[in-house]
Amino acid sequence: MKVYIVRHGEVPHNALKQYNSADEDLNEVGVLQANALKEKIKDLNYDIIISSPLVRARHTASIINVHNKEVMIDERIKERNPGDLSGKSLTVTNREEYWNYYTKIQYGTSENIKDFFERVYDFLDELKLKEYTSVLVVAHSGVSKAFSAYFEGLGDGKVLNRGLKNCEIKVYEL
Q: Do residues 167 and 9 make contact, with C-beta atoms less than 8 angstroms apart?
């Protein structure tokens, strides 16, 4: 099965380079990015779209769903919850350490990275059991980091630079 992972279009907190747990919609740039991606993938054949429940992912999914396929929502592919870091600049943490699977540092009340990866891995393990040929997953940068670790291995555990940019797409074989 081919699994295409797409990161949602830009939202206000992306533009401000902030952590955020708010359920924000796409900004104007994000809508433009999603429409550009729609054009890029118009010939892509997929059986279903599985989206994060967050509005930015659902909105991106609705824009890029050129074949009007079913869009299923799955809670397990929500973004990592930053907890009390929400609304703060990304610079308040050591980003490399924040996205280090083997870190011993807990930043405030943010979701533990191992717990976060475990729920994404659970989603992928269950997806293996489905009869799809091709799936389009619309989620978040953190989820794309977990996908990278699942399919390519954890390596040194530092996954900061393994995430997708807004409306970037990557394919894996499951």
A: yes
